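Chapter summary example: a protein plus cytidine-5'-monophosphate.
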Amino acid sequence: MIFTVAVDGPAAAGKGTISRAVAAEFGFAHLDTGLLYRAVGVVSEARAADPAQVARSLTPEDLARDDLRSLAAGDAASRVAVIPAVRAALVDFQRSFARRAGGAVLDGRDIGTVICPEAEVKLFVTASAEARAHRRWLEVGGDAAQVLAEVRARDERDMNRAEAPLRPAADAVLLDTTDLSVAEAVARAAALIRARL
Ligand code: C5P
């Protein structure tokens, strides 16, 4: 069975949590595409290398680095994500993952719009910037005001770039998680998938 669930939305809206949960529930494979951009950002900075070249030769070791979850890595990711040659280098891998046999959930920014416009289910997961910054702060700690400023800066960069900007696909279902528990958000996503299986 070929069945793709595209989950897009801004930083810390709950995409990853929802994607992991529904992938487990339906037995689908899951790809966190942000990790690809994080690895390209961090590795190209560490080696002072051309990000497009790094994107073309990403290794499993690059993706397994333990510093990819930091705020700095998210920032580095969104800076290399504006480069068309970086995005182009990552397209084929993501598309074949999306259409692999057995079903797949991909979360990112452009899955429903660019990577897999034919996805059977498209979700656009959002939450207020304050709610998202608070969740990120619970994970990473530090100065709350600075976390909020970084979340806003990243939204701004992701929404306003020329190449594959963050926006909902015309046929995406919006899921605002500001006032939802994790269980409620997952249940809504799962109900949508079940209805289209
Ligand atoms: O989702 P995550 O916070 O890990 O993504 C890090 C950054 O990678 C995003 O802010 C965005 O700039 C970029 N990204 C992207 N397209 C994707 C996934 C992530 O441009 N499909």
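Key point: The mean pLDDT is 96.
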